[in-house]
Amino acid sequence: MDTTTIKNNFRSEEYQINMGPQHPATHGVLRLLLTIDGEIIKRVEPDLGYIHRSIEKMCERDSYQQIVHLTDRMDYLSSHINNEAVCLTVENALQLEIPERVKVIRTIIGELTRIASHTLWWGVMGMDVGALTTYFYGFRDRELINDIFEETCGARLTMNYNIPGGLMFDIHPNFVKRTKEFIAHFKTKLPEYDLLLTGNIIFQKRMEGIGILSKEDAISFGASGPVGRASGYSCDVRKHHSYSAYDKVTFNEVLKTEGDTFARYQVRILEMWESLSIIEQLIDNIPEGEFFAKTNTVIKLTEGEYYQKVETARGELGVYIVSTGTKNPYRMKFRSPGFSNLSLLNHIAVGGKIGDLVATMATLDLVIPDIDR
Amino acid sequence: MGINNTPDIPEDFPGKVIPGGNGANILVTSLDEIINWGRANSLWSLYFGTSCCAIEMMQTGAARHDYSRFGFEVARPSPRQADLIIIAGTIVNKMAPVLRRLYDQMAEPKYVIAMGACAISGGPFYYNSYSVVKGADHVIPVDVYVPGCPPRPEALLEGMLMLQAKIKTESMKAKVFPIDGFDEGL
C-alpha cells in the first residue's frame, strides 16, 4: 500500500502518554501528560505536586531565622540566593543598615552559586540530548565551587550561610585565594565547553529553531531569567532592581532575540562569563568590618506586607511576607521562576516532536521542588 | 529453595549423583559466594531523584567521586532493568504510590538505599508538614540508611559499600524477601 491508501483506509487518532513522574529528562518528579498524534505533540499538561512539601505553610510556624533554612530546599541549585531573598525581605522590613562587607560577600557567593548552577545545567542538558561527556566536565568544575562553599559555609549544597542581618560567620581565610584560583581555572575551561558542545554541528542542528518563544509571549507568560532574556525581554533583576552589591559592579545583561533553545543555551554560557567578571571586580575589594548587623533574637516585623525580588540562576524569585506583628509571618508566598517558566511549556512545545520537548525542557532549566515548594 | 534429599534418578543417568544433605549444601554455599560476588559488584541503580539529594547522588557518579569504581555506574531509567533504588529526596503523599509501584516493578533481588534525612524520617519536614511521608520505610522496605541533609558523596559511597557487604551475607537457602509481610507490619 502506498501512503495515500494508508491514509484513506486508516484514521490517525490522538492519544495520551505520560512523561514522568519517574523520567530522567524531567529533572525530578514532574509529570507531563502529552497528547500526541504520531510523534507530533498536540498538548502538554503538567501535573504538579509530586514533591509538594508544604514549605509555605511551614513558614507560618517558623521564626524568620528558621525560614531561611527551608528556602535552601526549594531551589537547591541556587540555595544561597534563595536565602538572600528572605534575608533581604526581613532586613528591608526592619530597615536594618547592612554592613558593606556582608553585601559584597553575598554578591560573590551568589555569583559563584550561579556558575555552579549553570555548570550543572550545562552538564545535565548535554546528557539529555545525548552528549554524556558534558556531564563529567560540568561536574568536575562544579566540585571546585563546592569546595569553596564547604570551607566557608560548612556545607556543599544547602549552605544556609545567610541570616537576617548578615552572615552566619566570616569568610574562611582561604576564600579569596581559592576563588581566584577557581576563576583562573574556569576561564580556561569555559572555551573548552564551547569547543565540546556549542560549536558542535550536530548539537546546533538539534537545538536551533525549536521551542521558539517570542518576546510578547515571554512577557505575557511572566518568563524570567535566561528564558526571558533569550527572547529579548530585558528582565534582569540585578540590573533593574539592584540589590546587595550589584550597583557597584558593571556587567552586561546578556540578551538574545532568537528565542529558541539554542539562544537560551547561549545566554547561560555567556552569563557564566558575566558572573566571572562580577566576582573579579569584587574579590579584591571586600571591605573590612563586621559580618553582621545586630538584630533582636526574636525578630518581629511590624504589621504590613513586604516584597523583595532577586535574580536566581533560574530567574526572578519573589518573596512576599504578610506580617501581623508577631514573630511568625501570617502568610508567606514565593514567586518562583520555575513555575512561570513551566507555564509556557505548552505554548512552545506544541507542534514539535517528543525529542524536541526534551531539549526544550532542558533549556528551561526547571527545578521541580522550586515549582512545587 | 528446598533441597530434595532423595531425588528420583533415572536408571540411565550418566555420571555420579552426590546425595542430598551435606554434599549439596557445599555446592549451594559455594554458588552463593559466586552469585553474591556478582550481584554485589554489578548493582544497577534506578534514576530516582526527587530533590536536593539527587544532586549529591549525581556528584557521586561524576568525575571526582566516580561510583563506577564499585560497579554502580549503570543507572537505568526503567525499574525493570534496575536492582537498586537510591531514594534521593523527599517522598510526599502523592509520590508514595509511585515509589511503591516502581519498587513492585523491579525484579528480584532488589535493594533500597534511603539517602538523606527526608527519606529516612521526613527530615526538616518532619514537623508541621501536611504532605510529607515521614520516612520512605513506610512505603517500601529499606536496606541501608544514609544520614545527612544532603549526605556527602563519600557518605553515599559508604552506604553503597555497606549494601555490598549485606548482599555478600545472603544465602540462597535462607532467602528472605523484605517485602513479605511488609504491609502487615511484620
From TrEMBL, chain A:
Keyword Transport carried by entry: yes
Keyword Membrane in annotation: yes
GO molecular-function terms, A-Z: NAD binding; NADH dehydrogenase (quinone) (non-electrogenic) activity; quinone binding
Reactions catalysed, as given in the entry: a quinone + NADH + 5 H(+)(in) = a quinol + NAD(+) + 4 H(+)(out)
InterPro entries: NADH_Q_OxRdtase_suD (IPR001135), NDH1_su_D/H (IPR022885), NiFe-Hase_large (IPR029014)
Keyword annotations from UniProtKB, A to Z: Cell membrane, Membrane, NAD, Oxidoreductase, Quinone, Translocase, Transport
EC number: 7.1.1.-
Membrane topology classification: Peripheral membrane protein
Domain (NADH-quinone oxidoreductase subunit D): residue spans on this chain: 128-297
A single cellular component GO annotation: plasma membrane
HAMAP family assigned to the protein according to its UniProt record, in alphabetical order: NDH1_NuoD
Family the entry assigns: Belongs to the complex I 49 kDa subunit family.
General function of this protein: NDH-1 shuttles electrons from NADH, via FMN and iron-sulfur (Fe-S) centers, to quinones in the respiratory chain. The immediate electron acceptor for the enzyme in this species is believed to be a menaquinone. Couples the redox reaction to proton translocation (for every two electrons transferred, four hydrogen ions are translocated across the cytoplasmic membrane), and thus conserves the redox energy in a proton gradient.
Protein name (Swiss-Prot/TrEMBL): NADH-quinone oxidoreductase subunit D
The species this protein was found in: Flavobacterium soyangense
